[in-house]
Amino acid sequence: MSAYFLGVDIGGTKSHALIADASGWAVGFGEAGPGNYEDVGYDGLAATLAVVTQRALADAGITKEQIAGAGFGIAGYDWPSQREPHLAAIRPLGLDHAPFELVNDTIIGLLTGAPSGWGIAVIAGTRANCWGWDQNRRIGRLTGYGWRMAEVAGGLELVGKAVQSVALAWTRRGPATRLTQAFIEWTGARDIEDLLEGLSLERLQVDASAAPLVFQAAAKGDLVAQDIILWAGRELGSLAIGVIRQLNFEALEFDAVLVGSLYKGSPLLVEAMRQTVYTVAPGARFTSLSAPPVVGGVLLGMEQAGLNAPTLRETLIQSSMELLSTRSIS
């Protein structure tokens, strides 16, 4: 019976599963919605794991018994005390026969983007996070708890700053901004007062999906929106610096992998981040992913089964992109 390897990437907005054979050739893909337990609970995590894995198995035309190794990158898995409940969500998949590993989703982004297999990865998606490890797999990381721990600049925080700028403009504490009209149209509010009343009383909602409004306003020359993006870039750079210092990377050349849809919004974001990091670690090599982070989950699964995963990385990336070009993914 042929051996296959499963990678799973569970996120706060969407989740992916990828299956490849022992040569690194991708053969199956599955997609589902959010699975971060902070948003959907552990039952919701288990449900998302089941759906996304079953879809990948069906796409590959194989059974779970043919899985020889698996790697799970899960958003929200931040502390050792959370390992057991996360494992409990994985067990119903019926992969007890196969070795597997569970890591924070940032790590599988690092494995996907760093040819060396070590460095740091900075996520800027629905939320922001940064983890890394050195050549000996010593970990550097953040808490993963956003505003509460001053770890900001994901889509949620970017939109939060934008909403604040609209309120500042209305109360005459800040300059006028195109974001006012953009949020009125986005929410369907009648006018600025209806917008701010609706947001204040939670009759209206905005979330990370509104982040493109900020990038669009910035592209049209809105200085407020541009300042928000520059703020986000500096904050992401600060997250990276923390992990760089934990791992003593300041004088090294290393990969800094950028993971998440926010990086596609504006070159201002990446440039502000780059300049912030270079003040501490001029040897950082900034790399954007050429394949989805779930590829790193497959590499992690291969590693658990004893394969020389780094030698299969390029084949896996190439074949995954060929496979995904025939699928409609978000």
What does this structure look like?
- With 330 residues, the protein is of the alpha/beta class.
- It has a domain at 4-115 and 290-324: Nucleotidyltransferase, domain 5 (2-Layer Sandwich), CATH 3.30.420.40.
- Helix content is 45%, strand content 18%.
- A five-stranded mixed sheet has the order 3-2-1-4-5, with helices on both faces. It has a five-stranded mixed sheet with strand order 8-7-6-9-10, sandwiched between helices.
- The longest helix has 24 residues, at 37-60.
Proportion of strand residues: 15-25%
- CATH topology of one domain: the name is Nucleotidyltransferase, domain 5
User: How many strand units?
Assistant: 10
Average residue pLDDT: 95
What percent of the residues sit in helical stretches (DSSP H or I)?
40-55%
Structural class: alpha/beta
CATH class of one domain reads: Alpha Beta
What's the CATH H-level superfamily name of one domain? ATPase, nucleotide binding domain
Spell the H/E element sequence. EEEHEHEHEEEHHHHHEHEHH
